[in-house]
Design goal:
The structure holds two protein chains of two kinds. Chain A is 31% helix and 30% strand. By secondary structure, chain A is α/β, with parallel strands linked by helices. Chain A has one domain: 3-Layer(aba) Sandwich (Rossmann fold). In chain A, the strands form two sheets. A six-stranded mixed beta sheet of chain A has the order 6-7-8-3-9-10. In chain A, strands 2-1-4-5 form a four-stranded antiparallel beta sheet, covered by helices on one side. In chain A, α4 (118-131) packs across α5 (147-159). The radius of gyration of chain A is 17 Å and the shape is globular. By secondary structure, chain B is an alpha+beta fold. Chain B has two domains: 4-43 and 250-372, no CATH class; 61-226, no CATH class. Helix content of chain B is 51%, strand content 19%. Chain B is built from twelve helices and twelve strands. In chain B, strands 1, 3, 4, 5, 6, 7, 8, 9, 11 and 12 form a ten-stranded mixed beta sheet that branches. Chain B has a two-stranded antiparallel ribbon with strand order 2-10. In chain B, α2 crosses α8 (233-247), α2 crosses α11 (294-327) and α2 (13-44) packs antiparallel against α12 (338-364). Chain B is elongated. The A-B interface holds A 48, 51-52, 55, 57-58, 78, 81-86, 88, 90, 92-94, 96, 98-101, 105, 108-110, 112-113, 121-122, 157, 161, 169-170, 173 and B 1-2, 4, 7-8, 10-11, 282-283, 286-294, 296, 368-369, 371-372, 374.
């Protein structure tokens, strides 16, 4: 089995005082390398909770989570950032770029977290921005970029640490149709040409044609998985 | 790449300005108050510290230089009987009334010493010389008090306690803690001005023989000379400083004002650094999601605090140094020695770092899952 992420019997319960809400209920899922996995489902179905747990941002209430073969469900708060840093790149709906840093510096910041600094970081940042077609926007700040350009910077940043896994949360939600397709093309290329395991959480029906695998979630359970 | 901390600070220039104003206000207040405290401290004991004596013999129970109790001069001879005493002289410090040439009256502190010996005499003489004080009715004052004492030039004649006095010299930088300037004169003249009996003195200044153990000599004099206290110069200096600074409340007031500056600065800086952190809270959440450790994020916040401290310190010094210089010609002396300037820098860093604690606590509690909330 070539799964980058493997979850078994995953449960997540949010407790608030006496009330408890079950966000995930017995989820089993394997995320393969070199494939685009699409997570779809209505709002509140548990998609974001699932991707947060797979991204080692949230800890499950019960169940197993293996990331690149390592069990991470029982890791402490101090160990999870290291797993994220080494294996996972995130792309967010709201881009989450640092407004005070240029495009090149946004990418370099991700490298800084891995201890890559100076000219090596500059070289790698420029390479990555070139790969996403932004070699002419190195010095531009997020405020001066279009939505599509921002998302491409975010993708370059997600790739900075050379992670095996890319988790994207509604990456096309803030983009127009043309730009959204360009971003999805890029995601597919990351999976097919570069062997990354790409997980996309989306409501965007345009994304369906890019999926190698479609996972439909409802009420915290996987209702349907199709290739 | 410029640091994230620096970029965050420079991003909102108005907020940075507010932060810096808070730091500068606090630091200038602290510099001025501590500088005043140091100035007070130095001035209260300057005559003692510059006396050149090793020991001070005083009446029992004396608490400071300025309010002395006379005793019989036979104590001087008892002091001189000790073979470890190289020199010893009588010494007077007494308040008196100075009548200006224009008839207005001021209070002065007559300091009577032995001009041939020089112990306890004036320093930084810029006009005249000590030998002039061997002549009758001559005094030396500081140039700073010329206007207060109604004197424009050497040779002008005034009255001290109704007795004639001729200004025979000027010093520079001998300030008085009280409102009464020092009027240095010979011990003989001082007896006349203060009305003290010829066989009385207020202090005996002692210079130990070269190589003599001053503390041992102090103990022997305590044992051999009855009804006196014997202090080393450092002890008497400290005693005088403590008396004026703490028993009068002047020192406490200054220290409280300095503490208030620190508290105000701390609150202002904490508030603005917290506001800056909250402005960038989503970015800190993104950093956490990207795998940044808490330590990495702390460093960003502490770097923001450090940069604020350095900028605030430099601006505070740019304001404080001219204020300190101006105080040299004013009634309240403010001192800013290099040690104090260095301490203020450390204080600025500590203040800004402490102010960051609230922000650090906030960032620690960020849920990185916030990054998924559109």
């Amino acid at each position: 089995m070539d799964a980058a992420i493997s979850v078994r019997g995953l449960e997540k319960v949010y407790e608030s005082g006496a009330a408890a809400a079950r966000a995930l209920d017995g989820v089993d899922l394997d995320v393969a390398r070199g494939k685009v996995t699409l997570l779809v489902g209505p709002s509140g179905s548990g998609k974001t909770t699932l991707v947060s747990i797979m991204g080692c941002i949230l800890r499950p209430t019960a169940g197993s989570v293996r990331v690149m073969g390592r069990e991470v469900a029982g890791l402490g708060e101090s160990e999870l950032p290291r797993v994220r840093l080494e294996h996972i790149g995130f792309v967010f709906q709201g881009f989450n770029l640092f407004p005070t840093l240029s495009a090149e510096e946004n990418v370099a910041l991700a490298l800084d977290l891995k201890g890559i600094r100076g000219s090596a970081a500059r070289r790698r940042s420029r390479d990555l921005l070139e790969q996403v077609g932004l070699s002419d926007k190195l010095r531009s700040f997020p405020a001066d970029l279009s939505g599509g350009q921002k998302q491409r910077v975010a993708i370059a940043r997600a790739l900075a640490g050379d992670p095996e896994i890319i988790l994207a949360d509604e990456p096309t939600a803030s983009l127009d149709s043309h730009t959204g397709r360009a971003v999805l093309d890029m995601m597919r290329s990351l999976a097919h040409d570069r062997g990354r395991a790409v997980v996309i959480v989306t409501h965007d029906s345009r994304a369906l044609e890019y999926a190698d695998r479609l996972v439909r979630i409802e009420d915290g359970k996987i209702k349907e998985q199709t290739q | 790449m410029a640091s994230l901390a620096l970029r965050n600070l420079l991003h909102d220039k108005v907020r940075l300005a507010v932060t810096l104003v808070g730091i500068v206000f606090a630091l200038v207040l602290i510099v001025v108050q501590l500088g005043l405290f140091l100035g007070f401290t130095t001035v209260t004991s300057a005559v003692i510290d510059h006396s050149g004596a090793d020991l001070w013999v005083t009446a029992v129970g004396m608490q400071n230089l300025d309010v002395g109790v006379p005793f019989h001069e036979r104590k001087l001879y008892q002091v001189r009987a000790d073979s470890a005493v190289a020199r010893s002289e009588k010494y007077i410090v007494q308040f008196a009334t100075w009548k200006r040439p224009d008839g207005l009256q001021e209070s002065v502190e007559v300091v009577g010493f032995e001009p041939r010996d020089g112990m306890g005499g004036p320093w930084n003489l810029i006009e005249g010389d000590l030998a002039v004080l061997l002549e009758p009715d001559t005094v030396i004052i500081d140039e700073f008090y010329k206007s207060k004492l109604g004197v424009r030039a050497l040779g002008e004649v005034v009255e001290i306690n109704g007795r004639r006095a001729r200004v025979a010299g000027f010093t520079r930088g001998i300030r008085s803690f009280t409102t009464s300037p020092h009027a240095f004169t010979s011990f003989k003249n001082a007896l006349t001005y203060t009305g003290l009996a010829e066989d009385q003195t207020v202090f005996v200044l002692v210079k130990a023989a070269p190589g003599a153990d001053v503390v041992a000599l102090q103990q022997r004099l305590r044992d051999s000379v009855a009804d006196v206290d014997v202090f080393t110069t450092a002890e008497f200096s400290k005693k005088t400083q403590d008396y004026w600074l703490y028993t009068t409340g002047a020192g406490v007031t200054v220290l409280i004002a300095a503490a208030m500056g620190l508290i105000v600065g701390l609150v202002v800086v904490a508030q603005t650094i917290y506001a800056t952190t909250m402005d960038h809270i989503r970015e800190f959440g993104t950093l956490k999601a990207m795998g940044a450790s808490n330590g990495y994020i702390y460093r960003v916040i502490l770097e923001q605090a450090g940069i604020s401290a350095v900028l605030g310190y430099l601006m505070a010094m740019a304001i404080s140094i001219p204020v300190v210089r101006a105080s040299q010609n004013g009634s309240a002396l403010i001192l800013l020695p290099p040690e104090l300037a260095a301490s203020i820098f450390v204080l600025a860093v500590v203040m800004c770092t402490t102010a960051s604690v609230v922000s650090i606590r906030k960032v620690t509690s960020i849920d990185p899952a916030m990054v998924f909330k559109g």
